[in-house]
TrEMBL record:
Keywords: DNA recombination
The Tyr recombinase domain, residue ranges: 1-116
Superkingdom, natural source: Bacteria
InterPro entries cross-referenced by the UniProt entry: DNA_brk_join_enz (IPR011010), Integrase-like_cat_sf (IPR013762), Integrase_catalytic (IPR002104)
Lineage of the species this protein comes from: Bacteria, Bacillati, Bacillota, Bacilli, Bacillales
Pfam families found in the cross-reference section: Phage_integrase
Record flagged with keyword Iron: no
Organism expressing this protein natively: Lysinibacillus xylanilyticus
Name of the protein described by the UniProt record: Tyrosine-type recombinase/integrase
Length: 133
């Protein structure tokens, strides 16, 4: 886990624990995200929060899995090696290639220009002339 992200989570937990002490609330397992009842947040709880946000923002469909796709896509578009991305999300590089590797238009355009620079018609014409001699 990124140290900055870890620090933010731990600061949030510390703040929350201090607030809850005033209410004689306990969090014996030390969970970072808990419900008002002090239980760890489960999938249904997270889904309900997402549904409420979607209702408020008029988003027709969204799942937590979209966040995973977004994370992987951002990493790949920033040239993070596939093996590193796979390790971060607990997948294999093969799965990343099959499921997550999207084609990025800017990369396609860039590759097209690079190809034009490397292989140009005049170089082929010159090689034809040399072979004719």
């Amino acid at each position: 886990m990124n140290e900055n992200f870890k620090s933010v989570l731990l600061d949030n937990k510390k703040w929350y624990d201090e607030i809850m002490k005033t209410y004689k609330f306990r969090n014996p397992d030390g969970n970072v995200f808990i419900t008002y009842a002090g239980e760890p947040i489960g999938e249904r709880y997270l889904k309900r929060i997402i549904d409420l946000i979607c209702e408020r923002e008029n988003i027709t469909h969204f799942t937590p899995h979209y966040l995973r796709h977004t994370f992987v896509t951002i990493q790949l578009s920033n040239k993070i090696p596939v093996s590193t991305v796979a390790a971060l999300v607990g997948d294999t590089p093969e799965t990343i290639y099959k499921v997550y590797a999207h084609s990025f238009e800017k990369d396609e355009v860039h590759i097209s220009y690079l190809t034009d620079e490397i292989i140009n018609l005049s170089s082929f014409e010159e090689s034809k002339e040399i072979k004719k001699r």
